[in-house]
């Protein structure tokens, strides 16, 4: 095996991020935890969307299940946080299996939109369930431990990223990429595409739900509108795509860069922040559709022409 | 009698839903772009009518053609100068760029129009009449009739006019259409403009029937999408029919399950239809 710089970058990055709680202010910690969770979401989406090529707009369902699994276990049954996380994980995995087997038969935009529909229906469904606090939500035991949440989020992100690294090197990941490039050809070559797709979705759902569980306890209040927020789906997709889908570092870079931009802009004017965020998306899709991590290698190869290459290939 | 009333409400509401989805289905069928900014265009059309009515005192129904022209121009420019640049990319990229446009339009609207609820409220807004004990609101009926008229016009345009032939040719085979002297850049821009104009008209009617905020776009996009899937992309009348199906389903769900279940029904319907009939040919336009 060739030496791969991305593993080294991930490990060095994780060690450096480990120093953050010792130097950061309270406000910085809030931002850091939030960013780590968002990066986990983007990286989890990368497994099903970036590697397997199944664009899921329904990952917020797994996030919401993680949030509600944890919240219900902790508030309704007084179980400890760890059991709550596990409960959310089980719910998300069950949901991924249950919907994955029929829905992963759909391809292209049909899968994308079916998952979008699922996330909308799920939010509405939860708000009708009594044990989940219906529309008013649930209040979790309050705990002031930003340090702990930071470590949990960092460890989760690292685990997710190492899984993606394994995908980028291993046989299983190669199977997923084969499905993305041409599913019929992959099946012909002996890839059990149904099994591979379902495992990819389950992996993606697991990390997403754990991020949800951590978020629930950290924020200590959950309601359907924020747990099943459909814009969250889009944010994770955009972070992964902006950074570079199907790569190990891309979603991380995308999540960190976009979170920072968003944070700086929203401290300025909140409306203008969202507006400029939209403009960033439009420009990124036009000029760098393979993500900003690709720009570096692309610019080295073809210079400034790289930026117009996408337009030349895809314009009418 | 209550059931009959619900059905009538569902059909009338469904006509407007169908009209919302017409533009999305047209753009999807011809350009193969699922326009996630469609709901934002509907919202913009609503605001155009609102300001024509409150600012210049133009009757909302007379303002609809003006809104259609404004939205056509906007749609034409968007496609000509932005979307045409990447329109042949993989679908994920066109989804993302239209989502980006959706964000831009939504927050520009919030800056320009503020986040307040707006209702287009002409003097006749509350009028209705009774037929055999069933109340029929005038404005809803008018919206339904306009939806049918526009579906007919679109059908005639696509099937009887030279422009429509060029649009269908471009949808079927871009290269062949080009060889026959059709400029696809122009056709794509006109098609997107037509879709935006239809969205604008439905937005005006939506503003009269309910209320506008800059944020209504997202749910209207989703609804239009559901209807485009149910109705298919080939025939405008099927799209209206798809709207009626969703309208009735929502009204029945509100009656028997409570209004909080309306969204569960329309999106549940979407998932079930997609999973049961995945091979359905949508690109028959």
How is the quaternary structure best described?
Answer: heterodimer
Shape of chain A: globular
Number of helices of chain B: 11
What level of helicity do the residues of chain B show?
over 70%
Helix fraction of chain A by DSSP (H/I, runs of at least 4): over 70%
Low-confidence stretches of chain B: 278-285
Helix run count of chain A: 16
Strand content of chain B is under 5%
Greatest contact between two chains:
A-B, 48 and 45 residues
Can you count the beta strands of chain A? Answer: 2
Key traits:
heterodimer; A: 316 residues; mainly alpha; two-stranded antiparallel ribbon; 78% helix; B: 285 residues; 2 strands; 74% helix; globular
Protein described:
The complex is a heterodimer of chains A (about 325) and B (about 280). Helix content of chain A is about 80%, strand content about 0%. By secondary structure, chain A is mostly helical. In chain A, strands 1-2 form a two-stranded antiparallel ribbon. The longest helix of chain A has 27 residues, at about 195-220. The radius of gyration of chain A is 19 Å and the shape is globular. The mean pLDDT of chain A is about 85. Mean pLDDT of chain B is about 90; it is low at about 280-285. In chain B, helix 3 packs antiparallel against helix 8. With about 280 residues, chain B is an all-alpha fold. A two-stranded antiparallel sheet of chain B has the order 1-2. Chain B is globular, with a radius of gyration of 18 Å. At the A-B interface, helix 6, helix 12, helix 14 and helix 16 of A face helix 4, helix 8, helix 9 and helix 11 of B.
Give me the secondary-structure topology.
The complex is a heterodimer of chains A (316) and B (285).
Chain A: H1 5-18, H2 20-23, H3 26-51, H4 59-76, H5 81-103, H6 109-126, E1 138-139, H7 146-169, H8 171-181, H9 183-188, H10 193-219, E2 221-222, H11 224-227, H12 230-243, H13 250-268, H14 270-287, H15 292-302, H16 305-314
Antiparallel strand pairs in A: 1-2
Chain B: H1 2-31, H2 38-56, H3 60-81, H4 91-113, E1 128-131, E2 134-137, H5 138-160, H6 162-172, H7 174-179, H8 184-209, H9 217-231, H10 236-257, H11 262-276
Antiparallel strand pairs in B: 1-2
Helix pairs in contact in B: 1-5, 1-8, 1-9, 1-10, 2-3, 2-4, 2-8, 2-9, 3-8, 5-6, 5-8, 6-8, 9-10, 9-11, 10-11
